[in-house]
């Protein structure tokens, strides 16, 4: 997957690029509006990450250009502005989703992946699978060894989050933010995360699936694909 | 007391004070002038008679319609050629109101001195005064009435710029975008000064407010990016080969960053609420939002083995931004869960007038008055930023709701009273249907 990262902050841009390169994505940075506009005119990308606030322009203008030129990339807005109007505005302009700074890398990746899926850019769009595990994002059904797993919505989301970010250490905070959203004054309910992960692992094991999820001491969890 | 009433009172006071004084003065003047006119006329008559006498004519006793007396005067020529006498003749009723003025003129004719006297009756000053009193009473009455009536009218014209300025100040709202004070044009100097002063003051306030607002917005916005960088680098760092000790350190940092970003986000939200950025004209189904939030927290409630009772009226529509409604209920409910005992209880009641969330738990540690202040926490646990209830309060303020807390018989109760005008409801809904069911059963 080829991704254009339109973000004026170089450290953040390189951080995102680092993480996504680890997922075998090809990342190109654009640090200002001008460069981004140029690159969009010259190359095609599968996904575009757009920061709303750019030194020489508004990211929303970029969205207009994308729409005008009929570019069919997935668009994810990165916004420091928390204003709800900004998000809505961005979505009206044709963005697919947004993340608000400061975001978790795994969250950014999951959202990017979801856009990619929705845009039907890879295989059967509603299916995410890994070895014996198969997830249908439309029907919210999880199967292990073709056997339907009785999971709750949260557990499904959790499993999908793990598979999308496989072999990555997911912090408890990132998982909590993913499952709960982060609007409520509800700091990382870690016990709750633990409970969910525990239930999920139990359910997968019961269905005779491999217990890929492992605890990473002090940090969180990891979906380890090398586990047998 | 209204300004115009005060002015009217003063005016009337001055009238009451001045009128008797002017009355006294004018009475004296009139009397003096009347007497003077009479005297000079009679002096003239006397002179005329004298000339007639000189001419050798016989003066008529009633020359010029006045009794005239000509007599020989014994003695030396008086110093004053003309002498005036005023007499009040009290014996006669008819002449009581009048006063007799006699003018004696002395003329030397040859060796002899003749005295010519004439008299006439003039109005007594008391009588003039009586006549005037009647007029003055009427005059004062008319003036009081006139002042009283025109004052209202006048105040409306003269004080109009003042009233309009007052209205403008009343309606002035710093938090609105167009915080320019609209003042009426006036030709009155005082009001011009007042307007200039008001304009200066409000412009200053608006500028200060804008800069504070800008600062807080910029500060929180500028914080977001460094936070995002730290978080992303920590994420990357945690993907590398690290030992347990390092992992613990990174984990601690992640929690701190989490906390920081939560506080920052909450402060941004509070600032935006203060700026009234979430004004909305759309109505939402509050009951539906409540139910959704309850679903979101269902797992957590189950995990703490809390029993949840809810009693939600249907079709509770409120004019509030949907996200704010979600945050409002979410914060209250998550507090009710967090500060609850394992195996405790939560009650949620929603009617068209209020929402009440009650939960069991330890009695409050801090004064309940501080409950809605920022960074006040029941116990210094790390699960909360201490901004939850401050946000609840702010959301309520923005939407004209009132929020109260009380602790009663082991139950914490937070009640949000909706103060909005009730929206028209869908027929056969909510209370109606519930009452209907009760009646049937």
TrEMBL record, chain A:
Keywords: DNA-binding, Phosphoprotein, Transcription, Transcription regulation, Two-component regulatory system. PROSITE patterns: OMPR_PHOB (PS51755), RESPONSE_REGULATORY (PS50110). GO terms for molecular function: phosphorelay response regulator activity; transcription cis-regulatory region binding. SMART domains: REC, Trans_reg_C. Residues 125-225 bind DNA. Pfam families: Response_reg, Trans_reg_C. The modification 4-aspartylphosphate is found at residue 51. Coiled coil: none annotated. Residues 2-116 form the Response regulatory domain. It comes from the Bacteria. Residues 125-225 form the OmpR/PhoB-type domain. This is DNA-binding response OmpR family regulator. It comes from Chitinophaga dinghuensis. The lineage of its organism: Bacteria, Pseudomonadati, Bacteroidota, Chitinophagia, Chitinophagales.
TrEMBL record, chain B:
One of its GO terms (molecular function) is phosphorelay sensor kinase activity. The chain crosses the membrane at residues 7-25. Pfam families: HATPase_c, HisKA. The lineage of its organism: Bacteria, Pseudomonadati, Bacteroidota, Chitinophagia, Chitinophagales. InterPro entries: HATPase_C_sf, HATPase_dom, His_kinase_dom, HisK_dim/P_dom, HisK_dim/P_sf, TCS_sensor_his_kinase. It comes from the Bacteria. Residues 218-422 form the Histidine kinase domain. GO terms for cellular component: plasma membrane. This is histidine kinase. CDD domains: HisKA. It catalyses: ATP + protein L-histidine = ADP + protein N-phospho-L-histidine. Its EC number is 2.7.13.3.
């Amino acid at each position: 997957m080829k991704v254009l990262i339109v973000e004026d902050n170089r450290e953040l841009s390189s951080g995102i690029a680092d993480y996504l390169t680890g997922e075998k994505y090809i990342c190109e940075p654009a640090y200002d509006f001008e460069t981004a506009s140029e690159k969009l005119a010259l190359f095609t990308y599968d996904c575009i990450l757009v920061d709303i606030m750019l030194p020489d322009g508004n990211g929303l203008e970029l969205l207009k250009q994308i729409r005008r030129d009929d570019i069919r990339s997935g668009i994810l807005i990165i916004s420091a502005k928390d204003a709800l109007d900004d998000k809505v505005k961005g979505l009206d302009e044709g963005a697919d989703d947004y993340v608000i700074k400061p975001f978790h890398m795994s969250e950014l990746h999951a959202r990017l992946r979801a856009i990619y899926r929705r845009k039907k850019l890879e295989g059967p769009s509603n299916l995410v699978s890994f070895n014996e595990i198969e997830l249908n994002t439309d029907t919210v059904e999880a199967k292990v060894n073709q056997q339907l797993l009785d999971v709750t919505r949260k557990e499904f989301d959790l499993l999908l989050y793990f598979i999308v970010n496989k072999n990555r250490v997911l912090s408890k905070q990132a998982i909590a933010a993913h499952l709960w959203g982060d609007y409520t004054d509800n700091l990382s309910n870690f016990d709750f995360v633990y409970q969910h992960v525990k239930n999920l692992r139990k359910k997968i094991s019961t269905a005779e699936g491999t217990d890929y999820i492992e605890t990473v001491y002090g940090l969180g969890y990891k979906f380890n694909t090398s586990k047998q | 007391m209204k300004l115009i009433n005060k002015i009217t009172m003063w005016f009337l006071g001055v009238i009451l004070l001045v009128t008797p004084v002017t009355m006294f003065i004018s009475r004296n003047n009139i009397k003096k002038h009347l007497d003077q006119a009479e005297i000079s006329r009679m002096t003239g008559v006397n002179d005329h008679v004298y000339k007639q006498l000189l001419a050798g004519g016989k003066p008529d006793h009633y020359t010029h319609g006045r009794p005239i007396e000509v007599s020989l005067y014994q003695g030396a020529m008086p110093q004053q050629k003309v002498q005036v006498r005023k007499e009040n003749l009290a014996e006669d009723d008819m002449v009581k109101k009048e006063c007799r003025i006699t003018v004696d003129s002395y003329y030397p004719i040859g060796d002899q001195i003749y005295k010519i006297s004439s008299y006439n009756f003039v109005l007594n000053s008391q009588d003039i005064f009586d006549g005037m009193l009647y007029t003055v009473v009427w005059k004062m009455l008319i003036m009081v009435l006139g002042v009283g009536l025109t004052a209202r009218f006048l105040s409306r014209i003269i004080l109009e710029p003042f009233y309009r300025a007052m209205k403008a100040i009343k309606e002035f709202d710093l938090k609105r975008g167009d915080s320019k004070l609209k003042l009426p044009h006036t030709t009155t100097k005082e009001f011009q000064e007042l307007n200039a002063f008001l304009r200066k003051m409000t412009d200053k306030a608006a500028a200060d407010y804008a800069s504070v607002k800008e600062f807080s917005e910029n500060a929180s916005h500028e914080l977001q990016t460094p936070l995002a960088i730290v978080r992303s680098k920590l994420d990357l760092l945690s993907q590398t080969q690290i030992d347990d000790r390092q992992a613990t350190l990174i984990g601690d940092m992640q929690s701190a960053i989490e906390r920081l970003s939560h506080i920052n986000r909450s402060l941004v939200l509070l600032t935006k609420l203060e700026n009234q950025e979430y004004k909305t004209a759309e109505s939402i189904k509050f009951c539906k939002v409540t139910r959704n939030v309850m679903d979101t927290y269902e797992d957590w409630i189950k995990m703490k083995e809390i029993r949840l009772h809810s009693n939600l009226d249907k079709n509770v529509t409120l004019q509030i931004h949907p996200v704010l409604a979600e945050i409002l209920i979410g914060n209250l409910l998550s507090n009710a869960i967090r500060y609850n005992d394992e195996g405790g209880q939560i009650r949620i009641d929603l009617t068209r007038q209020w929402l009440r969330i009650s939960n069991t738990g330890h009695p409050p540690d801090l004064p309940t008055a501080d409950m809605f202040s920022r960074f006040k926490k029941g116990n210094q646990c790390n699960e909360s930023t201490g901004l939850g209830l401050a946000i609840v309060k702010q959301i309520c303020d923005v939407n004209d709701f009132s929020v109260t807390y009380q602790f009663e018989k082991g139950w914490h109760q937070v009640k949000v009273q909706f103060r909005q005008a009730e929206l028209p409801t869908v027929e056969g809904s909510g209370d109606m249907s519930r009452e209907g069911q009760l009646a049937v059963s």
